[in-house]
Request: fold
Amino acid sequence: MKTRREFLGAGLAVAGLAGCAKHLPLRTATPVAPPDLTTGAGSLKAHAAARGFLYGCAVDVGLLAKDEAYARLIREQANIVVAENAMKWGPLRPTIDTFHFEEADALVAFAEQNRMKVRGHNLCWHRQLPAWFAVEATTANARELLAAHIAQVAGRYAGRMHSWDVVNEAILTTDGRADGLRDSPWLKLVGPDYIERAFQAARTADPQALLVYNEYGIEAEDAASETKRAAVTVLLRRLKARHVPLDAVGIQAHLTAGRKYGAGLMGFIAAARGMGLQVMLTEMDVNDREWPADEAIRDGVVADCYGGFLDLALADPAVRAVLTWGITDRRTWLNGEGARPDKLPERCLPFDQKDAPTKAFFAMRKSFDQRRIS
Ligand code: G3I
Reply:
């Protein structure tokens, strides 16, 4: 039987390297895989969990079914998911009497199989309403339509949801109303109390889910954001004063690289905390539309934007979840609505077109790690 040294020497002789054998350590190392720095203990969900909050993403449920790499990425990184479209009125309810729950059910099943939480998005919104809505919804039936829809949809998943975006994007101050409410179909058909009606119906349908008011355009240090933040704050206070079952506010956080984020955002989060609300960053991404084509420049400004924004927001203990609107640059709404003028794909999410972690991934993780545990 050959000794270990003879065995090694023989092998190296074959390779013409026998002269080197005496310099090799006698203990052959068991092959050790290079440390995987971005999954498992290195994943976004693990780093968030270590600081007491959730990380997750919006999911294109159609893609989930046919793209294993996409599914694996979500499994590896997220401990909370939300359907990008599948639970909205349009995709869910093609006719007034027909519900297509297949995709929504599939997402909830995926989450449960992988021990993730699920957010519901959304129960009442002015967009992505089915085509029949404009014809069939009237002032006579809209209240019942809203209540019954919420009973059916939120009721179907009762006890299994982390949270529901009950009302989405109800404020638009430029519509000119004193109360800041958007001139939405729901406002026209039901009246301003559609918001509290929706929350009441959601609480009845699912007493366990956190009920969320979700809004965009309230993040930046500019006049438009400031005005909208003020109107949203008034709305939240009014709902709380009327004992509407509201548990959290969702700050969508569709950000633009290069914009300023700061005291206005922090004041808004603190005000929400003061009302006893949780805060979630529900749809985070960073648009690089205002930057030149150069990828290194874009990656740098996008990462800085993620890091700076998260450093601010995560400093407040009210913030309990961070979700990006997608996870890989392969699938982002930003290449559709409001795409870059040069039509280059946006570099807006924590994973790139090849599903490799971006600078933004590492910036996010660094911000997660800096959060103080209260
Ligand atoms: O599913 C159809 C497909 O059958 C059809 O062939 C295709 C042709 O255009 O359209 C597909 O539907 C599109 C759907 O996304 C799925 O890709 C809709 O046209 C398109 O309008 C829809 O856009 C979604 C948008 O909401 C609708 O308002 C985006 O994916 C989704 O990311 C976006 O998400 C919103 C949040 O819900 C609320 N906050 C803002 C955020 C970004 O707008």
Observations:
- The pocket of G3I is lined by residues 84-85, 127-128, 168, 216, 252, 283, 333, 337 (CB under 6 Å).
